[in-house]
Amino acid sequence: MTDQIEQDYKSKYDQKSVLIIGAGPCGLSNLKYLNGKVNVICIECKEDLGGQWCQEKYTEETHPNLQNNAYYNQHGVLQSSMYENLICDVPKSLMIFKDTPANQEFGEFMTCQQFYQYLQDYSLKNCIKNKILFKTYVQSVRLAANLSDEEKNQVGFQISKKFLVQIVSNEDYNKSIRFLQADYVIVANGHFSVPNYPDIPNKNVFKAQTMHTHNYRVNKTNIFQKKHLVIYGCGISSQDIVYILLKKTTEEERPQKITMIGNEMMINFFKQTKSYRKEVESGVLTFLSPYIKQFESENSLVLENGDKVENIDIFMYATGYQYAFPFLNFQRDKLIDLYQKRGANYSLGPLYLRTFSVREPNLIFVGILQQVLSTQQGTERQAILVSKVILDEIKLPTQEAMQEDFNNNYQEALSLYNDGNKYIKFSQHKGIDEFTFFRQIANLCDIPSDEEYNGYLLKNLLPLYINAFLGNYPDLKQSNVSSQLPPGYFPKSGQF
Description:
Blueprint: H1 2-10, E1 17-21, H2 25-34, E2 39-43, H3 70-75, H4 112-125, E3 132-133, E4 136-143, H5 149-155, E5 163-169, E6 178-182, E7 184-187, E8 194-195, E9 209-212, E10 228-232, H6 236-247, E11 257-261, H7 264-270, H8 277-281, E12 285-288, E13 292-297, E14 300-303, E15 308-309, E16 314-317, E17 321-322, E18 337-341, E19 344-349, E20 351-352, E21 356-357, E22 363-365, H9 376-390, H10 399-417, H11 434-445, H12 451-476
Parallel strand pairs: 1-2, 1-7, 2-3, 7-22, 9-16, 10-11, 10-16, 11-12
Antiparallel strand pairs: 4-5, 5-6, 8-17, 13-14, 14-15, 18-19, 20-21
Helix pairs in contact: 2-9, 7-12, 9-11
């Protein structure tokens, strides 16, 4: 079957050809809007669709052939998987694609397994699984015009399209090395797999166990029992782990103490918590800021204000992820730049409409946007835009105009937030938000904006998130948004 998918794609090179990297929600959405209209193939390194929602059988500690794994070879980690008992942070009625309602038997907040099943159902309904090449890794994406004669000769065939893509077996990057061509490459490989580790001075003196939320799994819950756990970061991942350890375990199973360290504004919000008042008053849960200045000893650290945190048993980085595209040649092709701060890749560009590489618009990035409220609907809106460009229903501006548009948008992010990460990570305040962006794209696509959907997000979901970020994350999973929406609601297909 795998060979047939690849051969079918190669046999249609006379058509407009599109290669999609990744079969998670972003890749599947793009595949749905392009299938049957162009020659398209999707490359997925896991053995099934779903991206992070497809459980990886192995971790870095248990993989039998880690050094030969293609993903690990380029990224230094395995592709992430959601931990097994994860419950989504968005109600099912607001976490779905157009025309595909969630199973009514699923809970108000779908489990990881339920959303994985939803993606399977979505794939089946849209007949797209037969376009996905599994257990295959994209080793490189090269601009054909920049290939040397020697590189062209190694391929063994005449290159006729814009991109030359080298693929290999994900289980062993030395095996099954071959090449595909494409007019367009859509990068939908996700951005939650390469952990970000801030550079904390004196790291060599610290001897307590360290880990990243990337490595958290259900079977590791017992390692925190009766221990002092320090979590560095106060985003959704850290809140979810605190919720599990303090609200979903018995008193005998939970940590002796959890200290959360993070952004001063967020930590001040958390100190108002009602959900964890008992744990705070008993000393089981402590919120501290500002950031860490350095590790001080084998089990202690010092904050920037001089406060010390001592007797640490486990230190967990909840410090997010880096943007990583090791399959792109940044020296030869230079199609995008990765912007760094404190050694981490936090944003990228220049991109037109946060999607198209300005230097080569046929290289397309979908799913790098970090939306506050929209989930699959935001991804789908990008996929609609991309399909209309590829199908020549929308003509992109000149490179100069796209560069100017990017400069203006990026400078806006810089002026409001002191760095450019809000160019990619939307906010619901200070003037940059996802709704403004998606309305702009709706106008470009000449499709009416789905204001009903936007209204449900703002009316029903935003208050839950505000309450969660006041330290009341447990309340989020107790709400019932679907009862406030029309029965069996899903976003309208004729609107954007």
